[in-house]
Amino acid sequence: MERKNQVTKKMRNQNYTESQHTAYCISQRYGSQPFSEVLDNIKGALKRREFDILFELNLKDYLKSHLKDMPSQVILSVCNPETASKAISKDPQTGIFLPCSVTVKEVEQGNIEVSIEDTGITWSPSKELTQIAKNTTETLKGILSEVEQPGMKL
User: Fold this and answer.
1) 27-46: b or e for each residue (b if 16 or more CB lie within 10 Å)?
2) Which domains are seen in the chain, by residue range?
3) pTM of this prediction?
4) Given 13, 51, 84, 142, which residue has the most CB atoms within 10 angstroms?
5) Residue 9 class from Cβ within 10 Å (0-12 exposed, 13-18 middle, 19+ buried)?
6) Which residues pair with 26 in a beta bridge?
């Protein structure tokens, strides 16, 4: 089946207040580094915390025939094998939550936004995973401090 490649949809900008109030992720904006440098710093921080990057999706490339003027955005699917094995041993259905997502995207005025999945929210249906989820979120939040001093913009 062949898809028609018509670029008809436009991206809308998400302001920082919206980003900060998204329930399922925690976001931070940075203004002092280029996109590629922020992405590399995030990857390094994940590796230092023993997260494997299982998959990297360049969303801009993937959606280029569907969205006009989409800024750079990369989704990293990440997993810490120790945490994953603990979670699956407590609840065999945990695989539906894995891997965790981290996004790096260009936003207005040259800022880069990094968002981490808030596993305390996304894993919340499973009561057996509450503490593991909280610990995972705290570990992922630590990567946000390693990018450099954030260029906060409210």
Assistant:
1) bbbbeebebeebbebbbebb
2) 26-144 (3.30.310.70)
3) 0.82
4) 51
5) exposed
6) 116
